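Quick note —
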Amino acid sequence: MKTNGSILIVDDEKGQREILNLILKKEDYDVVDVPGVSEALEQLEQREFDLIMTDLKMQGQSGLDLLEKVLADDPQQCIIMMTAHGSVDSAVEAMRKGAFDYLEKPLERDNLVLTLLRAFERINLVRENRVLQKRVESIATIPNMQGEHPKMKEVFRIVAKIAPSNSTVLIVGESGTGKELIARAIHDGSPRRGKPFIAINCAAIPDTLIESELFGHEKGSFTGANAREIGIFEAANGGTVFLDEIGEMNVAMQAKLLRAIQEKEIRRVGGKVNIGLDVRLVSATNKELEQEIKRGAFREDLFYRLNVIRVNLPPLRERGSDIKSLAEFFLDKYSKAAGITMDGISKQALKLLINYTWPGNVRQLESVIERSILMAESNYIEPEDLPVEITASGSLAGGINFDLPAEGIDFEALEKGLIIKAMERSEGVIGKAALLLGMSYKTLQYRLEKFEIDRPEKRAR
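Predicted structure written out below.
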């Protein structure tokens, strides 16, 4: 039978216990009463109680003794002290030591009931916080989403808080930051976790096919529609639909999506029957949708439907303190997958990884570590095992830290000298030299013609 909560009464006066039993059971509380501290501790070993009500002064051990022993094991246990009028100072001392409140004897029924209501509000809040903390911890350990940086901790906190709801969520972040991983974490932390999670990349589907992909179609509704097909919304009924790169959806389709969200129903292409839906919608974009609205490329009314809860994923360059742990995670993951024993990443290589700007974010870091494991000549990833864009970036960062001479410099001569060195190091391969210099292939081609620089092999001949 469902009750308003469980209460353990500790009082050496039998009459007082009987009165409390009578009042509390009428208020639908599950009550157990005992005459002393030792009996209370025996009960607490057998089961948990939401709340403990204990007399302050009893024969043998006191209520303060019980308070100290209980809070030593569970600092969040809710305890109410009962005291005679002359012992109020001792009750106040008990509150300083962690008691929730105290009640003076003889107990007044209305005051007792009101105090219990306040106590259970606090108990429920503590319980919710415990659940939330567990959810944060579980989300913080999902693959590829390790992070101790404050920005990532805030992301984990928000995700844990919103996961149990049915609200639509918009995840905003650059490519490679892990938007789909966050969407899956929201689904896994929700009551829908046992139902389908279906993801679709709006940028990967032609405009002519996206309505059919989302809502399905009837046989014969268009050329090639040889059978009825259900769309992802219908297939995910009861679960979660993740629309990645929502900013790439054309405006006409945006209007149909808006109607589906508002009416909670869809109609297959070529169909005549509306189909009711129960799906949670999570969307993601690497665009500033507010700017897309100003350009007329995104519907404002749809934006407000999608942007009920917003999760902003920081780029990797803004949480550099997480690069080491992420790199080590990927090192462990891919070395095991490849059957290669790796002992770590050298300090020099790690410094290059931390100083790099990571335009491709976590996805790029993952690829770099996977590649470097295969390229490594030892059990450690060394700078020479890293891609040229990372080593070149590190070299450039260290090479420009100098003071300008008072007489100035010949900038064109300096630029020409750097280009010649890059061409020599890349053995005349323009693409590699462009990466070393941090410029495009076409820009380097132009510079080579401007400075009349031949490739190394031409000069050798």
